[in-house]
Specification:
Strand order of the largest sheet: 2-8-7-6-5-3-4
Shape: globular
Number of strands: 13
Strand content: 15-25%
Helix content: 25-40%
Distance between the termini: 53 Å
Largest sheet: 7 strands, mixed
Order of helices and strands: HHHEHHEHEHEHEHEHEEHHHEEHEEEH
Number of helices: 15
Bound molecules: pyridoxal-5'-phosphate
Length: about 375
Amino acid sequence: MSIIELAKQTIQNMQPYKPGKPIEELQRELNIEGPIIKLASNENPLGPSPLAVAAASQALNQVNFYPDGSGYLLKEKLAKKYAVDLNQITLGTGSDNLVNLIAQTFVKANDEVIICQYGFLAYLVATLGIEGQPILVNAKQWKTNLPAMLEAITPNTRVIYLANPNNPTGTWFTHAEFQQFIEQVPQHVIVVLDEAYHEYLADNPNYPNALSLLNSYENLCILRTFSKIYGLAGLRVGYAFSQAPLADLLNRVRLPFNVNSPALAAATAALDDIEHVKKSLQCNRQGMEYLETFLQEKNIEYIPSGANFITIDCKRNANEIYEALLRQGIIVRPLAANKMPQHLRISIGTSDQLQRLTTAITPLFN
Ligand SMILES: *Cc1c(COP(=O)(O)O)cnc(C)c1O
């Protein structure tokens, strides 16, 4: 018997998650002159907050000690900022760790987990990894179809994973839509609202104020991350808001030192750098406007996005365009793994990066 056959059947059948191509990998593969730009993983193109970098560097001097396993200082700051109690927060090695913890906590083999057809792939990986049964619900014009998800609920449903805005489509639902949805979800189903891109829409009055619903729903879990607007993707810090009993459960499954000390220090400091968040938001708005105008002028179809990326329809196998851009040192994200083989996802970069992108893309669509 081969080692492959020893693995659980669901894992034998799985494909490994393919992240955005790292800059160094492209450098190794093609001998490219000039700087490579990566617009493939929705990272902050302005980099991390200098305050966060300074705090992480400081913390490096004491990495002989284990980190504070409770993450007290970071939780305290989050609790103040968002007016929740400390015992309503769970920290994760990125929010994808929390996606996993929720599956481990609530989903037994063959239990059903509801995911949007174009949902974030980590939900599928987390579900299959514990032999749960993913139930993919069709989207409606690329948008997460909340009423259809309600209809998909059975007595065997344990978790519903929702990203708002959704990745890779960028579509989002409103507060009214979400409220109407969660009111009808039975209590035996955990609703995971993944708000990785929360900060990009937070001042939109229609964007859900999910925290305001937290006290009413013991089965609601809101995920946030430092990987996107805070520019700390490489350090891996995410957090969950829930009522205390759900947080208590997640904390039992969580490994004790899942967030390292430089990461804790950087995240805590990043929360103070309001200026950096503001600048990042502004950069994203300008970039999004620029790119939308370009796409409209060139008659390239795209899915309107509330996040820091935009997904375009190539109207043919998108790999050709992906490869052609790679040869010019531009990394974007093909979406074949998401069952969107004609689409490419482009992260909003700086204006210089986007100008290079539009120049490179123009002849490919003529
Ligand atoms: C980027 C992203 C995350 C963030 O993952 P981390 O593990 O926190 O880096 C989570 N959910 C969605 C939908 C995302 O697009």
